[in-house]
Amino acid sequence: MEFFNNHTKLFRTAFFFFAGLTLLVAILPAINNQQINKALPNAAVMSDDAIKGKQVFIANGCVACHTQQVRNVDMDRTWGSRPSIAADYAAIKRTDVWRNTATLMGTERTGPDLTDVGNRQPSIDWNLVHLYNPRAVVKESIMPAYPWMFTLKQHLEKGDVVVTVPKEFLGGKEGKLVASPEALQLVAYLQSLKQTPLPDGTPSPEFLYKRKQATAAGTAAPTLDGAAIYTANCQSCHQANGEGLPGAFPPLKGSPVVTGDNLELYIGIIMNGYDARAEYGVMPAVGTNANLTAAEITALINHERSSWGNSAKPVNEADVKKLMDFVKLRSPK
Amino acid sequence: MLKRGMYTRIKAMLIAACFFPAVLFAQGGSGDGKPGATLLFVLLGVLLAVLLAAFFLSVSVSNLVEKRRGRTADAQKQQLQDYLTNFSSRQIRQLLEIARQKRTGGQKLVTTLVIVFLGSMHSTVLLAQTGGTRTNLFSETGIIITITLILVPILAGIGIMIVKLSAMLRRQRNRQELEEAEQLAAYLATLTDEQALAELAKRKEALDYHLSDTELSGQQVPADNKGLISNVNTRTFLPFVSPKKKALKRPNIDPELSRLILWYMGCAIFWLLFGTTIGEYLGIKFVSPDADHLSWLSFGRLRPVHTNAVFWGWASLGMLGLGHYIVPMVSNTALASIKKGWYALWLINAAVVLGTLCLMAGINNGGGEYREYIWPVMLLFGLGLVLTLINFLQTIARRKTKEIYISNWYIVSAIMFALTITAVAYIPSWQNGLGETIIQGYYMHQGVGMWFMLFTLGIVYYMLPQQLNQPIYSYSLGILAFWTQILFYTLIGTHHFVFSSIPWWLQTVAIVGSMGMVIPVVAGTTNFIMTFKGAWHKVAGSYTLPFFLVGIIFYCTGSLQGTAEAFRSTNLIWHFTDFTVAHSHLTMYGIICFFLWAGMYAVLPRLTGKEAPQVTVGAHFWLALIGLLFYTIPLMIGSTLRGQMWIEGKPFIETVVHMAPYWLWRAIGGSLMWLSHIFFAWNFYKMISRTETVDIKELALQKLEAQTVATIH
Known about the structure:
The complex is a heterodimer.
Chain A: H1 2-5, H2 7-36, H3 48-59, H4 86-90, H5 117-120, H6 124-132, E1 150-153, E2 162-163, E3 176-179, H7 181-192, H8 226-233, H9 235-238, H10 256-259, H11 263-272, H12 286-289, H13 294-305, H14 317-329
Antiparallel strand pairs in A: 1-3, 2-3
Helix pairs in contact in A: 3-7, 6-7, 8-13, 11-14, 13-14
Chain B: H1 2-30, H2 35-69, H3 73-85, H4 89-103, H5 121-130, H6 141-189, H7 194-207, H8 255-287, H9 299-331, H10 338-361, H11 375-397, H12 406-426, H13 434-468, H14 475-489, H15 504-516, H16 518-531, H17 537-540, H18 545-566, H19 568-574, H20 579-608, H21 614-648, H22 652-688, H23 696-712
C-alpha cells in the first residue's frame, strides 16, 4: 500500500492519531477540571510555616510512601470522615517557576494516608519525636529518620524547641535536642492537613463497597477488640507495653487514672484531650477525633484496665455512654 | 426388537434429562432466590445428562457395529481381499509356508487374531460436555469448594462407568473380530493355485526391498572438500556449559557508527549499575530503615533517583543504542548523521546526571512519579530525543528499500510519542488542581507504554527474526498491534487513580482501555511465538534466544496482569500496595530489560567481533530471571494479604509488620538481580576489550614463519 510506504504520511497519521487521543483523554479533561472546580468556601488558609513545611515535604519525597487521598471506598474510612473530592485539590496551583503543581495524592501507601493527619495526630511533641526517629515512638515503623532536621545543643537559646527522645536514640551524645525551623515547618504542614467539613446541608459522597456487617438475626453484635483499638489510636504515644516514653508520653501501666474509679476524668481525657502536666506532651482529643463510639471506648478502657499488669474491674457500656454525653458538654469548642 | 425398545426408552430419558436442569433453574429464578442451591441442582442435572449420554453413546456405538456386521456378501469378500493386500512380509511368508505344507500334505489350522482397540474418544467427548456449565455465577468461594467436592466423586463415577462400558464394548468387538478372523482363515485356506501364490511371493519380494545406504555417496571416503565444517572436537567430555552458536560476522558496519553504538550501550550499562545499586539499597532500607541518616540518601529522595536513572539512563540509552543500529540497517542505508547521535548521547547523559544530583539535593518537580526531574533537566532529555527523531527520520527518508520495515514504525513513533507526553506533562497550562492528577495518570503510563514498550517492540521485530533466521510470522499482526496499541494504551493512564476524586467516567474509560490492551498484547505475543515455529530447536543452541523468550513470556503475562489490576474490584485489594511495584518490575524488568539484553548480546559481537564468555552470559540470564521471580512473587502474595487486611480494618502498623518477611524476600531477589548486572557489565567489557587473546594456532604459525626466515638467512 502506498500509505505504508510513504514515511511522511505514515508517521504523520500515527502522530495525529496519538495527539488526538491525548487531547481527548488528558488535556481537555484536565482543562475542564481546573475550570469547573473551586475550593470549598470554608477551607482553612495555610499558615506561612505550613507553606514552607510543604516544601520540606516535597523536597524529601514523602509522597513516595504517603498518599493524600481518601478514596470513596469503605476501607478508606480510616483516613477521613468523607471521601476526598475535587474541591479539596482545586486551590493547589503551580509551586513556582521551577516546579509543577503538587497535589501530592500519591500512588503508594507504604505509610499511612495523611489527608486528615492534622486531626488524627495533632500532638507537636509526638510529631517531632517521630520525625527525629520514628522508631522512638513506633517500634515497628520503617519510616526513615530525619535527624538532620535537629541539632544537639549544650546551651539552649531563647525560642529553642526541645524534643525529648529516649537516650538510646541520641547515639551516646549528651545535650538537649532542638528542632530546626525545617522540622517545625514540616510539623506545621502536617498539622494543617485537615479535611474541610462540607458546607452545611451538603451531603457527603458515599463510601462504596461497604464492609459486610454480621447483623443477621440470632447472632450477637460482634465483640470489639479493645487491643486493636488501642493499637490504632493510642499505641504510637503510650507504646505497646503501656509504659509510654519517659519525658514525653505518660505510662498507662499502673496509672491511677486508668485503674482508679474516677471514670469521668478518664473518659474526659480520652474524649477531650489533656494538658495538665508540664513534664509530658499535650494529649489531643483522640476519642473525638477518631469518632470512637461508646462501645469502642468501653472496649478500649477495659483493655487498658486489664493489660500490662493493670487489674481494675471492667466498666459497662451504659455508664460510659452517660459519661461521654456529660464530658461532651465540657469539650473546648 | 428388544434392543430397539431399549434404545427408544433411553432416548426419551435423555431428552427428559436435558430439560431437567432448565426446569430447576426456572424455579430457582422465581422462587426461593437462592441461586447457590439452584446451581447445585442444575449441575447435578447436567451431570445426570452426561451419565445418560455416556450410556446412550455406548449403546449407539454397539448398534453401529451391529449394523456394520449386516453387510452384503460382496462387501465382505472385498474386506477379506483388503486384509490380504495389507499383509506384511512376515505374514506372507507364513502364508506361503502354510500353502507349501498344505501342498505336501500337512494340514494345519491357523487362526489369526487381529485385535483393534477402540480409541478413548467417547470419554473425551463426555468430559468436554461437563465444561459447558455456567461458571460465571460461581463466585462464592463456599459454593466453588462444595461443587468441587461433589464433582470429584461424580466424575470418578463417570470415569469408572466409561471404563466398564468400553470394556464391555471391547469384549463385543473382540467377539466380532474373532468371527472375522475365522472367516479370513477359511478364505486363506482356499488360496492354493500357483498364480495366487506367485503373486504373493512377488509382493513379499517388494516388501523386503531395502536401500543399500550408499546410493548417494557411492564408495567415496567422507571428506569436507568445501570447508563447511569447523570447530571439530573429537574428544567428548561432559561440558559445564553447553556450547552455543557463535554470532555471524557482519561486514560493512561503519566503525564510526560502531563506536557510537558502543558508547550508547556503555553509558546505558553504567546507568543500569548505578540505578540498580540505588534500587538494591532502597530494598535494604525496607528491612533496615536506619542504614544511614544522611539527607541525600534518605528513602524519599533516592526512590526517584532509582526509577529515573533506570528509565532515562539505562533503558532509554540502551534502546537508542540499538535503534541506531536497527534504523539504518532495515533502511539499507547509512545513518544520516553520526554527529547528531553523539549530541543526543551527551544531552541525555547530562539530563540524568543533573537530575540525579537535583533529586538528591531535594530539588524535584513536585511528586508526580517519573516526572520528578524539574523542567530544565527534562528539557535536555527532550532535546536529545528531538535530535534523534530528526536523525532517524532523515535516515528513513534516504532508505533504499521501498517499504518502511515495521521496526521503524515502532521506533520512530515511540520517539514522537515520548516527546508528546513530555511536552504535555511539563506545560503548566493544564496542571492546576486535579488537572495535575489527570495529566500524571496519562504521563506515567504513556511513559512506559508509548516510549519503552513501543520502542522495545520495534527492536524485537528486527532482532527476533534475525536471530531465528526466519521472517516474522505475520506482518499484518504487527500492524494490528501497532494501531491498537496506540488506540487503547493512550486511554488507560487514569487507572492509577481509580476511586480518587477525578471524574468517574474518566476512570471507567481507563478501565475499558485496559481491557482493550488484550488485543495488541495477544497479537504481539502470537506473532513472536509463531515466529519461533519450526525453529524451537534453535533456542537450545543460542544464548540470545532465551532472553527473547523470557521477554515474550513476560510481555504476555505482565501486560495481561496490568489489565487484571485495572478493574475496580482488584483495585480494592491491590491499589496503594507493593503489588504495583511487583507489576512494574515484572514489566519494566521482565519485558524491557530482557529484550534489551537479548538485543545487545546479538548486536555487540557484530560490532566488535568478540563474544562474551558463555558461563557469565548464563550466570547473567539465570540470576536475573530467578532474582526477578524472588522479587515479584513474594511481593504479590504479601501485598494481596496486606490489601485484605486493610479491607478488614486492621490497624495500619500491623500491616507494616506483616510485610516484613516479604520485603526481606524482595531484598534477596533484588540482590540476585543486581549481581546479574555485574555479570552483564563484565560480559560487555569482554566484548569490547581491546586486549588480544592468545590464538595458539596463529602464534604457532608466526613462530614457524620466523624460524623459517631465520634459517634461510
